[in-house]
Amino acid sequence: MIKFDQVTKTYEKVQALKDVSMEIHKSEFISLVGQSGAGKSTLIRLIIGEERPDSGRILIDDIDVANINRRDIPYLRRKIGVVFQDIKLLPKRTAFENVAFALEVAGEKLSVIKKEVPKILELVGLKDKAKAFPDEMSGGEMQRIAIARSLVHKPVLLLADEPTGNLDSINAWDIVQLLLKINKQGTTVILATHAKDLVNSIKKRVVTIEQGEVVYDQQTKGKYVL
């Protein structure tokens, strides 16, 4: 589904990624681990076309992301859901409205929005919070809404960059359980995280990055190794 072919990315004199080559297959769940500055976030920004590699290729379904016209990037991103540690919900909109907003900006019909948003809220376990505003929800609930918003276009790939970083251990595990549930339904999930205990509990593929290079790639029942 995704192929990194000798990808290198440098910011000024700092090499964020160095000759990274790996393949990510459809419906996989991958924990991407590494210290701060190792290159995890750079890798995610390259996948969504926010950054372009200095050399090498990133292929998503045989399409080279680096060669996609800038005006076509939004269409690429509709196939890719992204969740960050910084939740960025709209404070003056309800949970329903926050999720609906992603459909509104894409020009979706109101009838479709009214039909699809409740389904997504139910998927993340927050149908009863549809009318709640962000300041009326817990950190875990807000992150679930952010995940719901990332799912509105039925993405084939979900990128989660430190989504549990601001949560306690109970809420963090709840978010991981939700990501596993989404993965089980066929969505490929890449979870970038520092959370050793969570990674070891997931028991899926683990890719470890150090100083911009993939140093470990445990295909099954991986563990957090640094």
Shape: globular
**What series of H and E elements makes up the topology?**
EEEHEEHEHHHEHEHEE
How confident is the prediction overall: mean pLDDT?
Answer: 91
Structural class: alpha/beta
Tally of helical runs = 7
Query: In which order are the strands of the major sheet placed?
Result: 6-7-8-3-9-10
Tally the beta strands.
10
- Largest sheet report: 6 strands, mixed
Question: Proportion of β residues?
Answer: 25-35%
Key terms for this structure?
226 residues; globular; 7 helices; single chain; 10 strands; alpha/beta; six-stranded mixed β-sheet; 32% helix; four-stranded antiparallel β-sheet
Describe this structure in words.
By secondary structure, the protein is of the alpha/beta class. It has a domain at 90-154. Helices cover 32% and strands 27% of the residues. The strands form two sheets. A six-stranded mixed beta sheet has the order 6-7-8-3-9-10, sandwiched between helices. Strands 2-1-4-5 form a four-stranded antiparallel beta sheet, covered by helices on one side. A hairpin with a 2-residue loop joins strand 4 and strand 5 (63-64). Helix 5 (139-150) packs parallel to helix 6 (169-184). The longest helix is centred in the last third of the chain and has 16 residues, at 169-184. It is globular. The relative contact order is 0.20. The model has no long low-confidence stretch (mean pLDDT 91).
Give a concise summary.
This protein has a domain at 90-154. It has helices spanning 40-47, 73-77, 95-104, 110-123, 139-150, 169-184, 196-202; strands at residues 2-11, 14-24, 29-33, 55-60, 63-64, 80-84, 157-161, 188-192, 205-210, 213-218. With 226 residues, the chain is of the alpha/beta class.
